[in-house]
């Protein structure tokens, strides 16, 4: 009996390995193609070194691994258990007196191993990869386009100059019908340079020389603040201008000099920040509690101030009847209005202080939730490997189909619900509608429960509908 169980377990485990590797590599390829399609416009036309593009792709493979592994587990589980049921192996082991749950044990253990590896990967590898990728994206976004002249189009990629040419010969680097607008600087005056022909020659990786033939130049020298404009015109047979292309060269910055976000930090670092934010919230509450508003005391403020003492000769009809003890004991309307204005100003200041404290507390609370969401995500997404075994095994058995098409369709439906719940849960947690725990773990808990109920039904032939009808 034990040999039969081991044989079935090994056979079922082997049925998982092939589909898992195939689905994992396929999903990685699809995610990589999606990444390239989304960002190809940021990479082309900027003379970015190939090594930098490869590094950018390599660093972005990290998040693809975290997403692709659980999805591959689901597809492989549906295919393996679908084939297991299609070949009537489940009926055979039941007839042999073997409990169906025993055959799932090796697969479940393997999913726990994958889950543990993904948790480590998400905490130690993924943040660093995200940080380097983010730094490279910033460097690429700041990179200027390369020197690329096109006929009848203005080009201003080089600081201080704007080019306009009628014709470009890419084979000889010759230009025809050249108009060059030179901006003023500390070393040169504003000028408009025209030439019938020109030749581009690269002196080095950072220097480019333009040789002009048969042209003219109009200079506009600085007039030193005078109202009149001076124009200098001259003709030339040959003229040379050298451009510094150092600004166009890609420069890779040090990622360690950039600030880290929640997705570029590990769990330990985020917990430290969460703890400091909680302490700041406590300080804000203490500050708000200590900053209380004190109502003016007539005995203290007005009893010994002749300006506010109410003489017996004051006519009562000249005063405002407020029903307030302090205000009704003042001697005239001006004093009453002054008191009202001062009290209103004090209350407005007190209100502003409380609103500022409430705003600070709300900001820090949202920040705490954002970090806690990322912490829970590092566990909930890897744990989906276990969830998809619990859910995929009974669904695969019930479909009795082990082909890729059926598994892909069912996986697409389940994964759509999974990613929608994950995205919406993150948004609701960030907006404080739900806790980070429920935002990240709702799908895992619900679908694990469904999977466990289906496994119980398949292994014991219990009908839950009968149980509910009896009750």
Mean pLDDT: 79
Largest sheet: 5 strands, antiparallel
Shape: flat
SS-based class: alpha+beta
Continuous helix count: 11
Number of strands: 5
Helix content: 55-70%
**Rg computed from alpha carbons, rounded to a whole number of angstroms:** 37 Å
Proportion of beta-strand residues: 5-15%
Total individual domains: 3
Q: What is the ordering of alpha helices and beta strands? A: HHHHEEEEEHHHHHHH
Oligomer: single chain
Strand order of the largest sheet: 1-2-3-4-5
Q: Uncertain runs with pLDDT below 50, 5 residues or more?
A: 297-304, 306-310, 312-317
Distance between the termini: 39 Å
Q: Keywords for this structure?
A:
3 domains, 60% helix, 471 residues, alpha+beta, 12% strand, flat
Report a brief summary of the structure.
The protein is of the alpha+beta class and 471 residues long. Helix 4 crosses helix 8.
How would you portray this structure in words?
There is one protein chain. The chain is an alpha+beta fold. It folds into 3 domains: 2-143 and 374-470, no CATH class; 161-248, no CATH class; 264-371. It is 60% helix and 12% strand. The protein is built from 11 helices and 5 strands; from the N terminus they run ααααβββββααααααα. The chain has a 5-stranded antiparallel sheet with strand order 1-2-3-4-5, with no helix packed on it. Helix 2 runs antiparallel to helix 4 and helix 2 packs across helix 9. The two termini are 39 Å apart.
Topology:
Blueprint lengths: L1 H42 L6 H37 L2 H7 L9 H38 L18 E9 L4 E9 L7 E13 L4 E14 L11 E13 L22 H24 L7 H4 L23 H4 L4 H67 L4 H27 L5 H25 L3 H7 L1
Antiparallel strand pairs: 1-2, 2-3, 3-4, 4-5
């Amino acid at each position: 009996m034990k040999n039969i169980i081991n044989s079935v377990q090994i056979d079922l485990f082997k049925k998982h390995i092939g589909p898992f590797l195939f689905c994992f590599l396929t999903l990685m390829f699809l995610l990589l193609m999606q990444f390239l399609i989304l960002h190809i416009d940021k990479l082309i036309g900027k003379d970015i070194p190939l090594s930098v593009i490869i590094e950018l792709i390599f660093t972005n493979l990290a998040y693809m691994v975290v997403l692709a592994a659980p999805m591959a587990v689901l597809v492989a589980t549906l295919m393996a258990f679908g084939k297991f049921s299609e070949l009537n192996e489940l009926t055979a082991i039941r007839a042999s007196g073997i409990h169906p749950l025993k055959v799932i044990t090796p697969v479940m253990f393997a999913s726990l191993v994958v889950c543990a590896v993904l948790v480590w990967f998400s905490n130690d590898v993924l943040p660093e990869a995200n940080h380097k990728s983010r730094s490279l994206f910033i460097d690429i976004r700041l990179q200027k386009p390369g020197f690329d002249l096109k006929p009848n189009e203005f080009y201003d990629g080089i600081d201080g100059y704007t080019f306009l040419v009628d014709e470009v010969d890419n084979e000889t680097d010759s230009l025809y019908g050249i108009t060059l607008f030179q901006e003023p600087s500390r070393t040169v005056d504003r000028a408009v340079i025209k030439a019938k022909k020109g030749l581009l020659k690269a002196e080095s990786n950072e220097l480019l020389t333009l040789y002009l033939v048969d042209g003219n130049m109009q200079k506009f020298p600085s007039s030193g603040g005078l109202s009149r404009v001076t124009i200098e015109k001259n003709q030339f047979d040959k003229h040379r201008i050298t451009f510094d292309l150092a600004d166009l060269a890609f420069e890779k910055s040090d990622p360690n000099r950039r600030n880290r976000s929640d997705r570029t930090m590990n769990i330990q670092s985020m917990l430290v920040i969460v703890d400091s934010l909680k302490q700041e919230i406590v300080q804000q509450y203490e500050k708000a509690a200590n900053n209380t508003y004190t109502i003016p005391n007539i005995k203290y403020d007005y009893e010994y101030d002749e300006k506010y003492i109410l003489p017996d000769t004051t006519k009562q009809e000249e005063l405002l009847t407020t029903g307030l003890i302090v205000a009704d004991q003042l001697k005239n309307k001006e004093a009453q209005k002054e008191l009202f204005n001062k009290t209103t100003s004090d209350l407005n200041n007190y209100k502003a202080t409380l609103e500022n404290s409430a705003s600070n507390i709300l900001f820090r609370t949202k920040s705490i939730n954002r970090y806690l969401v990322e912490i829970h995500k590092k566990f909930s997404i890897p744990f989906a490997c276990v969830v998809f075994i619990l859910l995929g095994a009974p669904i695969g058995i019930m479909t009795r189909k082990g082909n890729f098409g059926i598994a892909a369709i069912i996986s697409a439906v389940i994964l759509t619900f999974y990613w929608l719940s994950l995205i919406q849960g993150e948004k609701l947690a960030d907006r404080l509608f739900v806790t980070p725990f429920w935002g990240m773990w709702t799908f895992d808990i619900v679908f694990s429960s469904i999977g466990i109920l289906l496994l119980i039904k398949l292994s014991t032939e219990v009908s839950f509908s009968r149980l509910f009808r009896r009750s």
